[in-house]
Amino acid sequence: MTQTQAYLYLAFAIGAEVIGTTALKASDSFTRPWPSLLTVGCYALSFYLLTFSLRVLPTGIAYAIWSGVGIVLISAISWVVYAQRLDLPAILGLGLIIAGVAVINLFSKSVGH
Known about the structure:
Blueprint: H1 3-26, H2 33-53, H3 59-81, H4 88-107
Helix pairs in contact: 1-2, 1-3, 3-4
C-alpha cells in the first residue's frame, strides 16, 4: 500500500467517524433506533478503515490526524446543523488543532515523506 492510499483510507475513516458522531447526537442517547444503528455502523467502519492506514502511517500520527480533523469537522457541523455556537477561545483552539495537523503533515519525518 502506498502512502497516498493510506491517506485515502484515513480520509474515509474520518468521514465515517464524523457521520457517526453526527448521528450520535440524533440518536438521543441511543433511544432512536436508526440514528443509533448509523452511529454504531459508522464507528465500526471508521475503525476498520483506520486499520488500513496503520499499515503505512505510524499509529500516533494517524490517530492524531483522525481525531484532530474529526474534532474540527464535528465542531463545524454542530455549528451549522445543531446551531451550537463557538466562542473565540473555541475557535482559536480549533485553529491550533488545524495548525498541529498541518505541522505533522508538512514537517514531521515520522510521516515518512
